[in-house]
Design a protein that fits this description.
The chain is mainly β. The chain has a single domain (about 1-165), classed as Immunoglobulin-like (Sandwich). It contains no helices and 14 strands. The chain has strands at about 1-5, 5-10, 20-25, 30-40, 50, 60-65, 70-75, 80-90, 95, 100-110, 110-120, 130-135, 145, 165.
Length: about 180
Amino acid sequence: MKLEIASTWDGRPVPPSETADVRCRMDDDGLIVTVDAPFFDDPSPPTRTGSTDRLWEYEVVELFLLGAADRYLEIELGPHGHYLLLQLHGTRHVVRQGLRIDHRAGIAGQRWHGHASVPLSYLPTGIVRANAYLIHGTGEHRRYLAAFPVGGETPDFHRLESFGLVAWPPGSPSFDDGT
């Protein structure tokens, strides 16, 4: 699966220098997510690399994977090696956070590349929709970009109905929060 982030959150095209690609593939160990994105040199989180709360407040690429019964996984990856994973059930209802993954990132000139390995047990059952986002800039220069525009008055990446249809391997293991 490949998602190209090539428009603003409300659907306006962005120049090629601002686009990003998010690719996903399954292997025996889990979901492999790779990122190729522009590097804007925004301030990095003031924490060590690894799982980082509120990563969406920094330069980040996000991937949302929506499965059955409104269960979804939010994967956030930053150019400095920070990441955040949230399992949700229903819009914005976090059921698990602080999940650990292997995420490596590297900056080369004006681009950064990320590689994350996500355990299959973190994925929701029956993934059929997804969206990806790129957030960068600070203050009035903050930019919110999307693979599939989300519409509305303000950027809201939890508008599940705006996610695009994706082909996903059937029978993939998944999380269950017991509800």
